[in-house]
Every structure is written in structure tokens, then in C-alpha cells.
Design a protein that fits this description.
Shape: globular
Distance between the termini: 49 Å
Helix content: 25-40%
Number of strands: 14
Radius of gyration: 19 Å
Strand order of the largest sheet: 4-3-2-1-5-6
């Protein structure tokens, strides 16, 4: 089966299912093994935001959306040449990836007959369900079930390790300029890690808030998890966040690897957050996962 992934989390799911050799098309943001890069066609492009501040990125996104312009570009000719059987896309967030409607319109225009699977999870359980859906659509349902069972076992191990311990109140900053509180599956990660998420929006879209909204929630710990950034970028932003929470521990989290992409690595995120909240109860996280800045 020839697979095309139009979002990074779907690419991670494909590789976790052992289907990397079947993946023929990806986005410019997908992280691939170095040995595989030359063999994949980039079918979705977009603005390179490296070097831009969070405020500059926010202004760019708002201006594009206000103008009715797209944040991502589908390279239709490249897609047409791949003869795909299954295309993985989403409608969850226009800021994060190309909407599935654009893909369907392009396929109709090109006369392509690939199946399109839209992955739109809002909770952690729905993320696991989306992995099962990809496995079924790609013809490896048992492989997907084994993968999801293993991920749930890891979360069960964390739950057992932190059971009976006090749950710290945790505020999550998903964007810093302007501040956004976390939504979707991220509060589920905090709860699974033994924390009590505060000022979050479980199962709903993240929203812009004031710093006072987050402070008034009286968090014991603040996690800074900026979408689109790994640990080094998160550390820089967490240092700017820390003065808003005097006396409260502020931690930077490798968001793209652990928190914001709805794929198998969310289990890594739960384990890393648990190590922040309950360091005496769970193993230390690997290098590059989290860093305390205040």
C-alpha cells in the first residue's frame, strides 16, 4: 500500500506501525529517519518559522487567516504522481496542518481515487483510537492493536507508580505570546501523569487567556509546551514565562516530541511529565525531554 501523510503525527503513527517503507509522501514538517529522507516526496509546504519569535508567528498566522489565505500549500502535481492508496490528513487545526477538505477537492480535480482518512482526536483515548483507525485502513489492524495495548500498559504503569500521591496543580502554557492555555488531549496527559490540570480546556480547543487567568488558578507547577518547538525553543520561552509565576516551578517541555502531536509519543510525554511531578516515584526522563527554568 502506498501511503501519504499530510501531518507530522500521522507520519509518526505510520513509522510506529512499521510502515515506513510504504510512506511515499510527507509534509515539510515531518520528522523522518535520515536514511529515509531521500525516498519521500514533500507534498505539503509552508512558511519556515525558524528564527521567528512566538509573537511574530502569531501575527503571521492571524494575518494569513484574516486574509482568507492558507498556511500550508498542497503540491498537487507531486501528489498526483505518487499514485497513493491512502492519504492521512486532519481537520483538527488549520494552524497545524492542511484541512482534509483541501485534499478532497484536490483529488477530485486531479481525478485521483485514493482513500482519505481524517484524524481529528480531541482526547488521549481518541488519539489511541486514531492509531487503530490508521492500522485498519492500512491493512495492519493487529499491529495497531498491539501498539495501542503497549501504550496503554505504559500509562497504567505510571498510574500505579503515582497512585495515592498528592496531585500537584498544573497549568500548561501552550503558547506564550499571546498566552494560550492547553486544550485537546493535553489535560489528559497531565492527569495520567499524576497531576491536576488547572485553567485548561480538556477535549476542547486551546484559547487565548490572560496571565492573570493562569495565576489565579494557583498552580503548583507550570509547564511551557509551545506548539512547533522542541526543548531549546521551549526553554527560551519558559524563561520569559517564569516572571509571571514568582515562586512557582516553571518547566520547559519538548512539545513537538512529547505533547502537541497526537501520536504514539504522547506516552513518552506522560512519563516525562510524571517525572516532573513525582520524581521520587518514576524514572528520570531522557535528555532533551524537559528542563526546569525557575
Amino acid at each position: 500500500m502506498r501511503l501519504v501523510s499530510l501531518l507530522p503525527s500521522a507520519t509518526e503513527i505510520v513509522y510506529a506501525l512499521g510502515l515506513g517503507d510504504d510512506l511515499v509522501g510527507v509534509t515539510f514538517e515531518c520528522e523522518l529517519p535520515a536514511a529515509d529522507r531521500a525516498g519521500k516526496t514533500v507534498v505539503v509546504g509552508g512558511t519556515d518559522t525558524r528564527g521567528m519569535t512566538p509573537g511574530e508567528i502569531d501575527a503571521h498566522v492571524r494575518a494569513r487567516l484574516a486574509a482568507g489565505a492558507d498556511l500550508y500549500t498542497l503540491h498537487a502535481d507531486a501528489l498526483a504522481g505518487l499514485d497513493a492508496d491512502l492519504i492521512l490528513t486532519q481537520d483538527l487545526c488549520r494552524v497545524c496542518a492542511l484541512p482534509s477538505g483541501h485534499v478532497s477537492d484536490a483529488l477530485d480535480h486531479l481525478g485521483c481515487h485514493a482513500d482519505v482518512l481524517s484524524l481529528d482526536p480531541y482526547t488521549l483515548d481518541e488519539v489511541w483510537q486514531s492509531i487503530l483507525a490508521v492500522g485498519t485502513a492500512a491493512g495492519v489492524p493487529e499491529r495497531a492493536r498491539t501498539l495501542v495495548d503497549g501504550l496503554r500498559d505504559r500509562l497504567a504503569a505510571v498510574a500505579a507508580a503515582v497512585a495515592g500521591r498528592p496531585r500537584p496543580r498544573v497549568a500548561v502554557v501552550e503558547w506564550t505570546d499571546p498566552p494560550f492555555t492547553a486544550g485537546h488531549w493535553i489535560p489528559d496527559l497531565v492527569h495520567a501523569a499524576g497531576g491536576e490540570p488547572v485553567a485548561t480546556r480538556p477535549g476542547a480547543r486551546s484559547v487565548q487567556v490572560d496571565w492573570s487567568d493562569l495565576r489565579d488558578a494557583a498552580p503548583d507547577v507550570v509547564l511551557v509546551t509551545p506548539c512547533g518547538f522542541h526543548l531549546d525553543g521551549a526553554v527560551t520561552q519558559a524563561r520569559a514565562v517564569a516572571p509571571h509565576f514568582p515562586g512557582t516551578p516553571v518547566w520547559a517541555v519538548n512539545a513537538d516530541a512529547l505533547v502537541v502531536r497526537p501520536g504514539p509519543r504522547l506516552a513518552d510525554g506522560v512519563e516525562a511529565i510524571a517525572a516532573v511531578l513525582h520524581p521520587e516515584a518514576v524514572p528520570a526522563p531522557p535528555a532533551g525531554a524537559v528542563a526546569r527554568v525557575a
